[in-house]
Amino acid sequence: MRRPRPHRPASQQPPRQVDRSTLAWCTAIQMLADHHHTGIDRQVLVADALLREFGVRGLAQLHSDLNRGAPIDYRFTRCPYCSGIGEDPTQPTCGEVGCAPSLEFAGHDHGCPVCHDDYQPQWFAEEQMTELEELLADAIEEREERVSLRYRIRTWLRRGEPRP
Fold first, then answer.
1. Cα(64)–Cα(79) distance, rounded to whole angstroms?
2. How far is CA 154 from the centre of its chain?
3. What is the pTM assigned to this prediction?
4. pLDDT tens, position by position, 94-131
5. How buried is residue 164: exposed, middle or buried, by Cβ count under 10 Å (0-12/13-18/19+)?
6. HEC string of the chain?
7. Which residue among 15, 79, 110, 162 is least crowded, i.e. fewest CB within 10 A of its CB?
C-alpha cells in the first residue's frame, strides 16, 4: 500500500529553477557584482532570488535599490538590460509576449520590459529646457506683477488718499 505524501507548505517547496544563461540573469549578476565590488560567484543566489521573485521587471527595482531607493528616470539613464536601445534584446516572439493576434504578423518590435523604451536624452532634455524656460518666464512675470502691486499700494499709502 502506498503511503500518502505529506502536504508541503509553499515555504517548503523547492525553489523554482532560474535559467542562468539568460540576459536578464547576466545583467542582474553583473549589476550586483559591480555595486558590491565582489566576484560574480558571491552574487549568484541573490540574482537567482531576484529573477525568481520578480522576473525581468525586477531589474528596474534592483537598479533603483542600488541607487539608494531613488527612482531611476530612464529618459536620461541608459537601461542596464537593453543598453538604451529600447527594444527587448532577447527578441521574444509575439506568443511569448502575449501580443494581440492582429499584431502578430505586423513585424513590430517588443519594448524593453525594464525601461519601456524611454531612453531619449536629447529629446527629453530639449523638452525639459523648454518647460523650464516657460516656468522661469511665468515666475518673472508674476514677480513683476507683485512688485508693481506693492509700488501702487505704497504710493497710495504715502498720499493718504481715501480708499476708492
1. 11
2. 52
3. 0.52
4. 878 778 777 666 667 788 888 877 777 777 777 878 88
5. exposed
6. CCCCCCCCCHHHCCCCCCCCCCHHHHHHHHHHHHHHCCCHHHCHHHHHHHHHHHHHHHHHHHHHHHCCCCCCCCCCCCCCCCCCCCECCCCCCHHHHCCCHHHCCCCCCCECCCCCCCCCHHHHHHHHHHHHHHHHHHHHHHHHHHHHHHHHHHHHHHHCCCCC
7. 162
